[in-house]
Amino acid sequence: MNNKGYWCLQLHAHLPFVRHPNYPDFLEEDWLYEAITETYIPLLSVFENFVRDNINFAVTMTITPSLANMLADPLLQSRYYAKLNKLIELSEKEVLRTINLPEYHSVALMYERNFKTCRTIWEKYHGNILTGFKNLQDAGKLEIITCCATHGFLPLMTNETAQRAQIQVAVKDYQKHFGRKPNGIWLAECAYTYGIEKFLKEAQIRFFFMESHGILYAVPRPKYGVFAPIYCKNGVAAFSRDMETAHQVWSAECGYPGDVDYREFYRDLAYDLDYDYIRPYLHSDGVRRNIGVKYCRITGKVPLNEKQPYNPEWANNKAKMHAENFVFNRTKQIEHLQGIMQKEPLVVSMYDAELFGHWWFEGPNFINYIFRTMQEKNASFKPMTPVQYLDKFPVNQVCQPSPSSWGDEGYYKVWLNPKNDWIYKHLNMAADRMVEIATTNQNADGIKLRALNQAARELLLAQSSDWAFIMTTGTMVEYAEKRTKEHIYNFTTLYNQIKNNSIDESFLSNLEYINNIFSEIDYKVYIKN
After folding, report:
1. 225: left (phi over 0), alpha (psi -120 to 50) or beta
2. How many beta carbons lie within 10 A of that of residue 438, not counting itself?
3. Comparing C-alpha atoms, which of 38, 114, 27, 40 is closest to residue 71?
4. How much of the chain, in percent, has pLDDT values that exceed 70?
5. Residue 255's pLDDT band (cuts 50, 70, 90)
6. Residues 154-175: what's their mean pLDDT?
7. What is the reported pLDDT for 252?
8. Which residues of 299-318 are buried (b: 16+ CB within 10 A; e: fewer)?
9. 151 near 191, Cβ under 8 Å?
10. C-alpha distances in angstroms, 487 versus 259, 334, 388?
11. Rounded to 5 degrees, what are φ and ψ at 276?
C-alpha cells in the first residue's frame, strides 16, 4: 500500500526526584515503584518483543533526568526489588486463596505472572532498566529524549542563566546515562515562551514538543497546522500535538481507558481483605494504602463496592479492538489530510507514559496491538520519530511559536495561581543568588566546590514544576510544600555559609547523601556570561 503519511508516538516518562534514605519506607517513593512495575517494565517488554518478532515500530520517549537518576540509584533499586518480591509473595498466596473462586483466580494468576515477568526483566538488567531502553535506542528502534533537569517550568524563571542551566544540566546527565547527546527535549509541561530555543540551539538539541496552539498561533500561521513541524528562526524544530488522538486515549469519558471491561484503578486489594492478611504488604506504619493488586473492572458508573470482577481475557480483547480502531481512525485521518495538504502529514500523539499501565492497566497492551495491527494490515501510514522526519523532510516552514503549555486552558495558570504563587519570589531569588555565588567563586575547590555544587542541586530540586502542580490539584499538598521549603532552606543555608566562608561540613555531607541527584554536576553552569 502506498504510504500516505506518518504517525509519531511520544511518551513522556517523568516522576519528581523522591528519595528518602533516612526512612525505612516512604509513601511518595511508591510513585516510582508503582511506575516501574506497571509502566516502565511493561513498556520495555513490549518494545523488546517487537524486536524479537521483527515488528516495525518507532517510538519517541522522554526519560526525564530526575527519573533517570532514580532508576540508576542503588538504594532505590534495592528497595524496589524488595517491594517486587513482596508482591510476588502476595500473588502466590492469592493464587492459593482464590483457587475456589473462579471469577478471581484468573486475575490472581495474571498478577503472579506479571510480577514474575517484572522480576525476570529487572534481574536481566541487574536492577538498571535504563540499560534496556538504551539498547533499544542504540538499535535504532527508540528515540529517547531529555527534559529540563528537574522538570523546571522555564517561562516562570526570571533569570535566563537559571533557564539555561536546566537545559545544560539535563544534556550532561543524558550523556552519562545514554552515551550520547539527546536529539530532542520535552520542555517541562510543554511550557514555551519566547527565547527558550536559543538555549536548545546552544545545547545542539534539534527539536522539542509543543501543545497544539503553540504552533497554531505561531507567526506567520503555519500552512500545515499541527501536521508538520515548524522551525524556529534559529533552526530548532517544534512538533505539536494532534488533539484527535489525544481525546481518543486521554479522555476517561469518551476515550478508550474508560471502557467498562478495563481494570478499575480505584478499588485495591489492600482495602478489601482482612487486615492481618494484608498487613505484611503495607508500609511499616500499617496504614492501608493501594498495593497495586486490583480485582475489579470499571463496570460503569457504580459505587466501588458494586464493581464487578475483572476478566483479563475480556480486557485483552478490548485492548486489541481499540488498537484496531485507533489504526483505522489514523488511516482515515491521514488519508484525508494527505488529500488536503498534498503532502504526507505527520500526526503526533503525545501522552504521559504513566497513563499506559499505571492509570490505564491495559495501556501497554494497547500499544502492543497498535504496531502489530499496522504491520498485519499493511497500514497506509508509517511510524516515525521526529529525527527521522527531519532527516527525510529537512525543509519546513519558519515561524515564531506562541507561548503556551499543555496545562488546563493552555497557558501557565496551573503553575501560577493563588495556591502556589508564593513559591516564585523564593525560587527566583534563589536563582539570582546561585548566579551570584557561582560568578564570584569561579575557581572554587575543596569544600567550597562541594557546597556550590550542592547549592545548585538544591535550587534545581526546588524548581521542579511538580510541586506547584500538586499544590494546584490538591493531592499531596503538604508534601509538595514541604519539599519546596526544604530545598529553599537548604539552598539559603549553603548560600550564607559560602558567602561567610563558614561551611558546615556535617550539614553539607548530609545533603549530599540525601539529595544526591546529578552526581557530576558542575556549579559553573550558573556563571553569568
Report:
1. left
2. 23
3. 40
4. 100
5. confident
6. 98
7. 66
8. beeeeeeebbebbbeebeeb
9. no
10. 42, 48, 40
11. -65, -30
